[in-house]
TrEMBL record:
Sample GO molecular function, one term: hydroxycinnamoyltransferase activity
Superkingdom as given in the UniProt entry: Eukaryota
Gene3D superfamilies hit by this protein: Chloramphenicol acetyltransferase-like domain
Family: Belongs to the plant acyltransferase family.
Source organism per UniProt: Oryza glumipatula
Protein name as it appears in the record: Omega-hydroxypalmitate O-feruloyl transferase
Acyltransferase in keyword set: yes
Keywords on record: Acyltransferase, Transferase
Keyword Acyltransferase: yes
Length: 460
């Protein structure tokens, strides 16, 4: 859905600072935080039919920043850590903009099926002259609509927080906005910002192959992969949004782990990830022998030893897990694809996570291997979709843009469903959508009895 017109700003943006003094320190970022992969903002959009009160939002934000003070700081390169990014916790403040967009209504997002368009970027204030590092870790814009509704957009620097940490903050902000009780501005469990639990070992020890960061070696094979993968992401790209209901997810679990399969059962995430990965390959139709990877984010808060701060760790608490196959093998067997996802998850433990951290220490600045690679990040278990800031629950929640990596998004009104959003080459968009629907035209009534949540600890 294209948004026409431009946002009207009657006043310049302001800086919202913590309402009380906060720690003044240079906050160390772990290697999982400060990897080049995460040098971009997590951008969310909320659409409400009601009106958000600006003063209430600002006062509530000021109160919660006392606990989430890194968001009011500034990123900078550290002299002590060879240029690694750190957060200068200086209470400089969050950039907060207010705009008005005539002609746009909250209902337009529902009628337009809420598929992101590049024009949506106008809903988030941006200083074109500022680099990623110079931009405040948190930028907020509230846009008033002609229907009386409101759009709230947030951009949180990904190297400061992952989706779990972002959700922790947003829920606290909403809770503060809904109550005048200052104590409710503080979360029941205080957020943990200390990243030292994920510091590299004194002598780095890379104990695993880590294909998620390994590109093909030189030679004819590398050239073939590069040539084929260039077609997998050939512009122009088109966003595709496919919603899987709870019944669809239950059906996929049966299709990907049939009774005759060695795979006795698979989780909702394993079935959905395998299905969308296969749909992508089938739609783009690369050579059958082409090596294909699946990267997916895997939450580690409960995997590392000791666990990260009782579930309130607000740094990046995930690593990339990597499944590998060939295009022909993926297209041929659904259970095999689910088995690969399942086995990949099982390999990720504390030793694996420590190995990733050490790899990122030794190979500072390395990037994941994205050639002929499908990437998935799940936002379905963060509780992001039903946050109420005082205007009721949103009628739409999602990312501000669609990218070549796939997001599993929550479905408002169907907590056990999921929407897959990803941009693919325009020529393959219709085929990808058809492949995603394969086998789901008719769902059994009994499927409704097997409806666990999507997610499996995934977060990014």
């Amino acid at each position: 859905m294209e948004i026409v017109g431009e946002c009207i700003y009657n006043n310049p943006p302001v800086l919202v600072t913590p309402s009380k003094p906060t720690p003044k320190l240079a906050l160390y970022l772990s290697n999982l935080d400060d990897q080049r992969l995460l040098h971009f903002p997590i951008q969310y959009i909320y659409v409400f039919t009601g009106t958000l009160d600006m003063d209430t939002l600002k006062v509530a934000l000021s109160r919660v920043l006392v606990d989430y003070y890194p968001l009011a700081g500034r990123l900078r390169a550290s002299n002590e850590h060879d240029g690694k990014l750190i957060i200068d916790c200086n209470s400089e403040g969050v950039l907060f903009a207010e705009g008005f967009l005539p002609g746009l209504t909250a209902g337009d997002f529902i009628l337009g099926h809420a598929k992101p368009h590049k024009s949506w970027k106008k809903l988030l204030y941006k200083d074109e002259e500022q680099s990623f590092v110079c931009t405040p870790p948190l930028v907020v814009q509230v846009t008033h609509l002609s229907c009386g509704g409101t759009i709230l957009c947030t951009a949180i620097a990904h190297c400061v927080s992952d989706a779990f940490g972002a959700a922790h903050f947003l829920r606290a902000w909403a809770r503060a906005a809904m109550s005048e009780d200052s104590e409710l501005a503080h979360p029941a469990v205080a957020p943990c910002h200390d990243r030292r639990a994920l510091a590299p070992r004194c002598t780095p020890r890379i104990a695993f192959a880590h294909p998620e960061y390994t590109a093909a070696s030189g030679g004819d094979d590398a050239s073939a992969v590069a040539e084929a993968s260039s077609r997998l992401f050939a512009p122009p790209l088109s966003p595709v949004s496919v919603t899987f209901t709870a019944e669809h997810v239950a059906r996929l679990k049966k299709l990907y782990a049939p009774s005759a399969s060695p795979l006795e059962q698979c989780t909702s995430f394993e079935a959905l990830a395998a299905h969308v990965w296969r749909a992508w390959v089938r739609a783009l139709d690369p050579p059958a022998s082409l090596p294909i990877k699946l990267l997916f984010t895997m939450g580690i808060r409960r995997l590392v030893k000791p666990e990260l701060s009782g579930g309130c760790y607000c740094g990046n608490g995930f690593v990339l897990a990597c499944a590998e196959s060939t295009a022909g093998q993926l297209a041929a067997s659904a259970p095999d694809a689910a088995r690969l996802v399942q086995e990949t998850k099982q390999r990720v433990d504390d030793d694996y996570v420590r190995s990733v951290i050490d790899l990122l220490e030794v190979r500072r600045g390395c990037l994941p291997d994205l050639a002929a690679t499908f990437t998935i990040s799940s936002l379905t278990r963060q509780g992001l979709e039903d946050i109420d800031f005082g205007a009721g629950t949103p009628v739409h929640f999602g990312p501000l843009t669609s990218e070549v990596y796939c997001l599993f998004l929550p479905v408002i009104g169907d907590p056990r469903g999921a929407t897959a959003l990803v941009s693919v080459p325009q020529a393959a968009a219709d085929s990808f959508e058809r492949c995603c629907h394969d086998g789901l035209d008719d769902v059994d009534v009994e499927d409704k009895n097997q409806l666990p949540n999507i997610g499996d600890g995934m977060a990014s």
